[in-house]
Amino acid sequence: MITSISRATVLLVLLALASAQAALPVSIGGQAVTSLAPLVEAAAPAVVNIRVSQTVVPRSPFSRGGEVAGAGSGVIVDAENGYILTNHHVVGEADEIQVSLIDGQVLDAEVVGSDAATDIAVIKVDAEGLVEMPIGDSNKVRVGDFVIAIGNPYGLSHTVTSGIVSALGRTGFSSDGYEDFIQTDASINPGNSGGALVNMQGELIGINSIIISRSGGNVGIGFAVPTEIASSVMQQILDYGEVRRGLLGVNIQSVDAEAAKTLGIDVDGGALVTRVFPDSGAEKAGLEVGDIIIAVNGKKVSNAGELRNTIGLLRSGDVATLKYLRDNKERSAKATLGRAEDQILSGADIHPGLAGASFSPAGESDDSGVQVDVVEEGSPAAQRGLRAGDIITAVNRVRVQNLSELAEVAGNSRILFLMVQRGDRSLMLQIR
Question: Of 100, 114, 162, 193, which is the active-site residue?
Answer without folding.
Answer: 193
